[in-house]
Amino acid sequence: MNTQTLETPLSGQGGQPESPKTFRNMGLITLGHSLTHWYPATFFMLLPLIGQELGLSYSQIGFIMTCQYAAGAISNLPGGMLVDVWGKKGQLMAMSLFWVGFPYFLMGFTTTYWMLLACAMLVGMGNNLWHPTAIPLLGKMFPDRKGLALSLHGMGGNMGDALAPLAVGALLSAMSWRQIVMLNVVPGAVMSILILYFLGAVTFAPKSKRAQTTEGTPASQGSAIADSGKQQSLSSYKKGLVDLFKTPGLLLLILSSSFRSMTQGTLLTFLPLYLAKEMHYNVFWVGVTMAILQVAGFVAAPIAGHLSDKMGRRSLLMSCFAMSGAVLVLMTFAGGTTLFVGLIAVLGFFLYAARPVMQAWMLESTPQNMGGTSIGLMFGMQSAAQSVAPILGGLVADQWGLMAAFYFLAGTILLANAMVVLIPASSEQRT
């Protein structure tokens, strides 16, 4: 395989357009991201059937996701460090996709609850290697339009989340859940091969030795990260790690993203259960309703990303979180009605709009040679928070009913908003 050189585009600088290879590679990364969401979305749809077959309680179902998120939390930071030190992003993304798909294949052979938990933990480890690799790569490909680029990447995730429930709902009419998880390994394996072929040896070359980089950073500071496909020394990495933890508002931004992820993870765990058990939807209509949630996020992502590039991250995040909390409270009053389904779409719009904005804020406020570590830290904390949320939601649902879990969701998103308010203004450095 010949080593490719992918030059960092100067979007909006000097009128130089991005190359076709840049867009091709972004398309591959976006499609790969859709599969990292396709697999969990498939599992969320199958959880009611798996729980019924194995005789699981709501708390036990929640604990499955807790184990998956906990494994992701443990593996995320080491994964981010590996990305920054090793630097071979194409190979890491290919490995991540295969690692996500294969444990689901193994689930088709599970006969006990503990085997199911082990497979879920393997999924968490593989799935959380993707983001510390792909997100900094896209940030370097589109330095002046991070919000938009990451929102398009996020749209890939929404696409996987939206299509998986529809596909599972249709396949369940002819196949068992075990056959579906076994067949599901194929798309991940194919995409892993494509990414390995086209991106496995990609490196970045600096455009020129100008005084300022495209991020507004002095060239001397940016030299260590100009070639994101090459390794950096351990001494350089240690210095970058010290600088990373000096970032103003770093902890608050990570906490905000973690509370938002608690909301999302708990919602995706218990919304299908509520639709199936309380509203008596069949599997197909549960899939359609979950797809509505993701389609709304698909529409919201590029709008939010573009607006955040122009008007700033903070104000947009505060608006999205406030609206998400208000919609969740309204859903508790509209339970069992068609209005409840309509509010799901509104919730999807505001909840998913925030995701790429937070990622862009993290990238541009932390050292550039620490992109993998900073995103790994963010997603690691998110996974840790998500590991707690489903079991807490399950305990609430067992005690007071499924609808009570939506009050829990409203509380977590309001906490996310409070963290954004407290972030110092100096941390928002839009380019």
Walkthrough of the structure:
This protein has 16 helices and no strands. It is globular, with a radius of gyration of 21 Å. By secondary structure, the chain is mostly helical. The protein has a single domain (20-205, 233-423), classed as MFS general substrate transporter like domains (Growth Hormone, Chain: A, Up-down Bundle). It has helices spanning 20-54, 58-86, 89-107, 113-127, 130-141, 146-171, 177-183, 185-199, 219-222, 234-244, 250-277, 283-311, 313-333, 338-365, 371-400, 404-422. The longest helix has 35 residues, at 20-54. It is 76% helix and 0% strand.
Quick overview of this protein structure:
By secondary structure, the protein is mostly helical. It has helices at residues 20-54, 58-86, 89-107, 113-127, 130-141, 146-171, 177-183, 185-199, 219-222, 234-244, 250-277, 283-311, 313-333, 338-365, 371-400, 404-422.
Q: How do the strands and helices of this protein lay out in sequence?
A:
Elements: H1 20-54, H2 58-86, H3 89-107, H4 113-127, H5 130-141, H6 146-171, H7 177-183, H8 185-199, H9 219-222, H10 234-244, H11 250-277, H12 283-311, H13 313-333, H14 338-365, H15 371-400, H16 404-422
Shape: globular
Secondary-structure-based class equals mainly alpha
CATH level 1 class label? Mainly Alpha
Number of discrete domains: 1
Order of helices and strands: HHHHHHHHHHHHHHHH
Distinctive features:
single chain, mainly alpha, Growth Hormone, Chain: A, 16 helices, 0% strand
